[in-house]
Amino acid sequence: MTDATPSGVDLVTRLDRLELRFHSSAPLVASGAHGDPARLDWNCRAVLPLREPGDEEALAENARLLAPGVSLGLSSRGAYQELTILDMSGLTLDLWRIDGILESLDSRDAGYEHFAPLFEQTGELGLHPELEESLVNGDQVVIIDQVRIAPAWRGLGGVGRLLIGHLLRWVAGQAAIVATHPYPIDLPDGDRDDAAREAREKAVVQRTWQSLGFTPFREDLWVMRPHARDHDDAVERLETAFAPYL
Fold this sequence. Notes:
Blueprint: H1 8-12, E1 19-25, E2 39-49, H2 56-65, E3 73-77, E4 80-94, H3 101-108, E5 140-149, H4 159-171, E6 175-180, H5 195-210, E7 215-218, E8 221-224, H6 230-241
Parallel strand pairs: 5-6
Antiparallel strand pairs: 1-2, 2-4, 3-4, 4-5, 6-8, 7-8
Helix pairs in contact: 4-6
C-alpha cells in the first residue's frame, strides 16, 4: 500500500459518510420471454461521496481516495462525484403473482439455475416444502446474484458484511427467504481448474455468508430465513463492533 493510499483504519473512519443507492426495474405487464411483472431486477450500492473540492485539504483527500483498489468505480451524481465501495445485484420474486417460477428464472439468466432447488417438490406458493415455514415473514424470494467489494475495504473486520446487512434491510423487507450461491467471483479463470484452490476460496466465501445467518440448503445454495433472526443478530453485532465509527 503506497503512502497515497488510505490505510484500513483511515477507511473505517469514513463509514459514517457512506450512503446507500438503489435501482430496480420490472415491466408493467408481461413482455415476451424476458419480461415478468412478478420479477424485480435490482442493484444496490454503498458509495462514498467525494468531498467538494473547496480547498487543498479536500483535494488531497479526494486524490488519496482515488488510489487503485479503494473503490470499484467513480460515478457522478449531479455536480458531485462518488466512489462505489460495494455493489450487490439480484432479483426478487413475488410468489403470489408469478407464473412459472423456473421459466422466469431461466429467461433471466442461465446462471440462475443454481436457485432451482428452492422451488423443487413444490409446496405452498411454489416454495420447497422445507422452506414453507418462512412464509410467516413474507411472500417474496430474494436472490442475491453477486456481491463485489473494493479490495481496500476487505479484511477490516466485517465492513462488507455490515453493508450487506444494511442493504438487505431495504431489499428483503418482505422476504420469506433470501438465497445466494457463494462463489469466489474474483477467482481468475485459469485457477478455476485448480479444484483444491477453488475449494479453499469457496470455503472463505461460505464462511462470510454463514456469519450473516445464511445456512446451506442444497449443495452450493445457501439461504437466510429472516424470521429466524440469526441475520438480524449478526448485523447488530457488527453495528456494535463498528459503533465508534457510525
